[in-house]
């Protein structure tokens, strides 16, 4: 079997096209465009790439996007003050503080910054208020990556109700919200992680398998029930191309399309899974583009709720 590709990039384009007229209508009605503030602290190269894409795509859709870039030496108090200012700014509907924050800020810096964001402007869905609303299946703002995965499954016609879903990874950003979204759609959900005994056997029970571990090629065919839908959330930068090709062998080159300065972007799912799964998200071009599209959607949602 060669798995069907779940084309996240195409769906992301479609979502942006649908948003454009809605953003125009909002702008006409409110007398201003929806406003998104991006906060980028430090010089993590991947964060610069992601935030650059968020700014470009937001602007293309018709948002006002303000990028607040600060050096790695910025103090936590300065970032908190910036966020408080954005909370109070009536032209700003969405606030996103890109993580990771510089390590020098301390291990609980991200949590303290996220908790300072007004939940009504929390377009990442990271505040305790929005997480609590998700747990209770109430209206709120939902983390972009898992929300995008649900859109992708639904548009592909993947049945969620009554199915077995296994999410590998228990992060606040992906694993936990993903599990809740699947649960609310009536899947029987297992959250597996690095301490789960016999992980391949647990994963093999899944009709829908979500890999959000952060280890290149971790999910091999031994983890996959034939015909299962496999969602690869991994975005692993592997620095030595030779090692990667050696590890994954011939035939995996189509998974190595994204190369920059000798680094390669690889998912958590081994390319050989395409021979077992029924459907599979590619890396790149699967979950990644959807995350940004959902950020746009969340920003318009936040803007519309604030002016209604
Ligand atoms: N870093 C990696 N992914 C994300 C995300 O979805 N939101 C934020 N704020 N930072 C990230």
From TrEMBL:
Lineage top rank: taxon: Bacteria
Organism lineage: Bacteria, Pseudomonadati, Acidobacteriota, Vicinamibacteria, Vicinamibacterales
Identify the coding gene. folD
Protein name from the UniProt record: Bifunctional protein FolD
Q: Name one GO biological process term.
A: L-histidine biosynthetic process
Q: Which PANTHER family is this protein grouped with?
A: C-1-TETRAHYDROFOLATE SYNTHASE, CYTOPLASMIC (PTHR48099:SF5), C-1-TETRAHYDROFOLATE SYNTHASE, CYTOPLASMIC-RELATED (PTHR48099)
Q: Gene Ontology cellular component?
A: cytosol
**Subunit structure, interactors included:** Homodimer.
Q: In which pathway does it act?
A: One-carbon metabolism; tetrahydrofolate interconversion
Report the InterPro entries cross-referenced here. Aminoacid_DH-like_N_sf, NAD(P)-bd_dom_sf, THF_DH/CycHdrlase, THF_DH/CycHdrlase_cat_dom, THF_DH/CycHdrlase_NAD-bd_dom
């Amino acid at each position: 079997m060669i798995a069907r590709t779940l084309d996240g990039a195409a769906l992301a384009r479609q979502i942006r096209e649908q948003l454009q007229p809605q953003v125009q209508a909002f702008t006409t009605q409110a007398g201003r465009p929806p406003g998104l503030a991006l906060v980028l602290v430090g010089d993590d190269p991947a964060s610069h790439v992601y935030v650059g894409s968020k700014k470009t795509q937001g602007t293309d859709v018709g948002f006002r996007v303000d990028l607040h870039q600060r050096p790695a030496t910025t103090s936590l108090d300065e970032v908190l003050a910036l966020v408080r200012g954005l909370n109070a700014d009536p032209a700003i509907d969405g606030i996103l503080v890109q993580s990771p924050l510089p390590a020098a800020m301390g291990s609980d810096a991200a949590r303290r910054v996220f908790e300072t964001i007004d939940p009504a402007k929390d377009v990442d869905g990271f505040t305790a208020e929005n997480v609590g609303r998700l747990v209770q299946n109430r209206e709120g703002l939902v983390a972009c990556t898992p929300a995008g995965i649900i859109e992708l499954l639904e548009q592909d016609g993947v049945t969620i109700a009554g199915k077995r879903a296994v999410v590998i990874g228990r992060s606040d950003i992906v694993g936990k919200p993903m599990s809740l979204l699947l649960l609310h759609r009536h899947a029987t959900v297992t959250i597996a992680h690095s301490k789960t005994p016999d992980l391949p056997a647990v994963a093999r029970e899944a009709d829908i398998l979500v890999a959000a571990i952060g280890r290149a090629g971790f999910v091999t065919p031994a983890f996959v029930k034939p015909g299962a839908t496999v969602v690869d959330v991994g975005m692993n930068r592997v620095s030595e191309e030779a090692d990667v090709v050696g590890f994954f062998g011939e035939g995996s080159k189509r998974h190595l399309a994204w190369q920059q300065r000798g680094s390669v972007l690889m998912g958590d799912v081994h390319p050989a899974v395409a021979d077992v799964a029924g459907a599979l998200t590619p890396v790149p071009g699967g979950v990644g583009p959807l995350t940004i599209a959902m950020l746009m959607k969340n920003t318009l949602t936040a803007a519309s709720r604030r002016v209604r």
